[in-house]
Amino acid sequence: HTAFDCGLRLETRVFTPRWAVQTKPTLLEGNERRFQVSYAREVEYHFLPRAGYVECAKLYRRHLIAQGVFRTLRERLKDQPELQHHVGAIIKKQYNGPVFDNGEIAKARELGVKKCVWVMGGWNFGGYDRLYPQRLPPNPKMRSPDGIPGEEGLRRTVALAREAGYLFTVHDNYSDAYRDSAEWSESYLAMQPNGERQKGGVWGGGQAWIVCPQEQLRFARRDLPRIRALLGRGGYFIDVTGAAGLSACYDPAHPHDARRSAELKRELLGLAKSEFGVIYTEGLYDFLIPTADGCHKIFIPTGAKHAPHEDALAVPLLPLVFHDAIILWDLRRSNPARAKDPKADKYLPLDGYVPLYGAMPAMLDAAGKHIAEAMSDTQLTEMLDHRFLAEGVEATTFADGTRVVANFRDTPYDDRGHVVAAHGFRISKFGE
């Protein structure tokens, strides 16, 4: 119940032939470099007659509903009209390039795509992952499809998308700062207990430094109204916020603990949501879901990078709890060969994970169009079940009667008389 400065890891092992189950709970104390354990906590155990992963997910879902913090997409649509354009849409992330659009608006029209949302990276002044916290004016090196550069080019691209019935928005970042920014100052950076400023990752702009969440809000209050004037309402994406864990800041000018870190993340997303109507973030912690409407880049935890064993099987805990409360898009599956061979592809093909997990596709092609249209109504319904039908074959069912079978094998699979191609999937309705 009070897990802002600690975590709980459960390790479960099944021993054969007696199928004895051993569960080892481990309380993870706060990392002293980031924050310190500062208050008592409470752990509540629930013993279930069938304690499979589906049952555990559904117990947690009921708990959140009882706490009043679970809000479905259908409920959100009542007071967020902009959200309707995102449900059942292809949501395409675009990265740095010379053109804001890259010809994708025309491509979507040619394919007959009904709903499409573009999230443009690199639109900001310095380009993708560069020169933050400055983000305005828009990147002068980029242009609209008809050649207009900078701010007017961005406005023109947004207008072209809306004329075609689509939505064009941007990828932004309030967490990172770079030394070569015209707005660089150590005064707004997060401070560690030892007085050193907190480093982030190394990205396109070089070494990033972490902006204190309180200071992130200051920049957001300054910039978000100006960005909305460029884009209009409809949607917005904030990178890192949902993917980075909780932290603390020890700068006397803007201190906070881990609990306040969670509140500040919610405030940032809430501020953006008030300006744009819909807010996405990268990854997701569940305490953000009452505010966030969608999340990008959820990793399917297979392979050595994300699982304790290379042969571990991923199960969809997040969608089993939150499928009808959050729009998932751009699922990714890590490639365990990456650790052994740096030249190996970073991600394996998605195969059938997108429809299997009830996510919206990020690919603008015939397959993406098919998934978006077939799963559009399903987006608003609960994922009821997930099971392994055979080795390499999985199925999920949803409350509207939709059933998805994904075949990850190299050979076809017979599903009730219907052939599911190797590395393919089948979407059907109840009774089909």
Distance between the termini: 43 Å
**C-alpha-based Rg, rounded:** 22 Å
Structural class: alpha/beta
The strand line-up of the biggest sheet is 3-4-5-9-10-11-13
Share in β-strands: 15-25%
Which spans have pLDDT < 50 for at least 5 consecutive residues? 30-35, 303-308, 344-348
CATH superfamily: Glycosidases
- In the CATH hierarchy, the architecture is Alpha-Beta Barrel
Commentary on this structure:
It contains ten helices and 21 strands. The protein is globular, with a radius of gyration of 22 Å. 40% of the residues are buried. With 432 residues, the protein is of the alpha/beta class. Strand 16 (383-390) and strand 17 form a beta hairpin. Helix 5 packs parallel to helix 6. The protein has helices spanning 53-67, 73-77, 104-111, 150-163, 213-231, 258-276, 317-322, 337-340, 353-356, 366-374; strands spanning 7-15, 20-28, 90-94, 116-120, 167-173, 176-177, 199-203, 206-210, 236-239, 279-282, 294-296, 299-300, 327-329, 332-334, 347-348, 383-390, 393-398, 403-407, 413-415, 418-420, 425-428. The chain has a single domain (72-383), classed as TIM Barrel (Alpha-Beta Barrel). Strands 3-4-5-9-10-11-13 form a seven-stranded parallel β-sheet.
